């Protein structure tokens, strides 16, 4: 592999115009495809085959015009009169009337929209249910109770709900300008003394994340690169190539919306990962190129050797990330598969750019690649002429106390993992939004005035096609009675049947074969009791089906998100087995060892457990007051494990390949550890600092998912790169000594020899181990540029 990559790097350097032109063409084609065929992104967190999806399919079969729970762009405008007043008071009623008129005039409303005041809707609903009860001989008292449970007006008349639905296919189609107009309408009503807030899928919107986070992360990365290379030109190269890679990746993701549903979080996650690995991979190869210039004056050869050695490490590091991200598709969760594959595609592009575009740009720049020096790096040398830098000092310090450091790392990371026992997973709802948002304030008012279950309804779909004619109504009533008797149910009632109300009585069209029973719980959607009630309903399905002759299923937004969370939890062990198994084999090929991949994997487990514990402490338990405590988004653990595993193996490959390279060239393991840190600690530290900065910057985003992901990824890099890879792994290598590289003879014959260290590279004539006067050459270049100025 090293030989092939070296040829690729040398060719790209010498024929740089063709390679640069090829990447420009690729970018132009992808931009054209995205502009022509892209569709809006969505947040349809569904999984084929889960019980709630099966019930939704049954609902669509019985009620052909039914809309998916995720496609309902409804808005609940909460209107509340001042304390001691009611909405029926003349002044308040006039404000509500003006508010409704303004709502009807908003853009993206249906042409024939008619929004009724809460009091009128409540009176109409009650009269309808009472009339139905009288006609069927039912209980008028129960009809009034059912009407009260669904009433958009509180009993005291102070708080009401004004509900409508945008004329769009899904909430993702609601334009920001429409939501801005809604805010202005609510502000007008607030100015007249009413409390007015709005929530619901159609009131949330899908805001495009701003560029401030990316700009801040890139700014910190540029500073780190300047300190690393001491050159303005060299510092800019990883930034430019990473931005090109992210641009291609994100444009490709946008183009893919024409074929598959992609969630609104996918692009920002792909940006985070693409920026981080794009900068790191280019940094690693560029640093090796600068080192090789100390050994040869042939820049094309130096590029080839850098791509052959550091590029091999980049390929395998990238493969571990690709495995971790692509394996998300194996668990059978469409939206998570899309996120993983989109991020994996961005990483793949970053690898290709580091192997081809970077050498081409170096060919374009020639001697100017390290121009614009702002500082010189001239570390002291020992009696043998070897550099004695901070990496060497750190490796020697670790070597003096490996046992103590191993124990300290295990205890510290283990302690950070303790809050993980409080982990609570859920999908974001209006009730878990930030307290200063209108969605959260509306949710709080609804929970206080109408009950927390008002926003967590469960929908029982009843299929009565096999029930004898004339007995369907009784069957529906039995289902309602069964659901009403369960613990935690505030109200259950039939809210729709598929009978045609205009058909002649006794005709097939007038006979209902399906019904929807709405179950209102006594608790909110984010509370653990919601899952308990869903479990009770599911466990009781066989009994009520046998008793009524119906087939039933439970669906609704709360049921769907609960099922998705359960499926995510069930998928975690399978996913871990896949990525750990494949990556373990890959690392055995790279390091020709069993113990090195084993310690790398155990170190990853420590860092990811500590990361999850810290994330739970900050985002769920609210430690430090950084954010308001709320459940973590259900897919975060699975996605975080995949991303962190891939990035952790990046640093393992970058650091330990240099250690193994030194050992392959005759050093003992302790000497190889020191030499590996001499050559790679500086670069790995810079790469980890850059990744930490890029991920940390996304904590500034308003989106709760992105904020928590940015925090988790940043803290994971700190734990894994600086604690596990820089402390735990070298300490374990010191303790294991030469046994670190043990590999059964039969396995050594089976595993392919990929030569990551570049041992087989033909370095050509004139290559020497002693350092050339590179600093002097760079000084001359800067002097020449100064004279030109």
UniProtKB/TrEMBL annotation:
Coiled coil regions in record: none
Domain of life: Bacteria
Keyword Membrane attached: yes
Keyword Transmembrane: yes
PROSITE patterns recorded: SSD
Pfam families cross-referenced by the UniProt entry: MMPL
Localization per Swiss-Prot or TrEMBL: Cell membrane
Regions that span the bilayer: 16-37, 220-248, 268-290, 302-335, 341-366, 403-420, 574-595, 602-623, 635-659, 680-699, 711-735
SSD domain sequence ranges: 232-364
Database matches in InterPro entries: MMPL_dom, Mycobact_MmpL, SSD
Residue ranges, compositional bias (Basic and acidic residues): 762-771
Topology of this chain in the membrane: Multi-pass membrane protein
Keyword set, alphabetical order: Cell membrane, Membrane, Transmembrane, Transmembrane helix
Feature: compositional bias, Acidic residues: 772-783
Region (Disordered): 762-789
Membership in a protein family: Belongs to the resistance-nodulation-cell division (RND) (TC 2.A.6) family. MmpL subfamily.
Name by which UniProt lists this protein: MMPL family transporter
Organism: Nocardioides cremeus
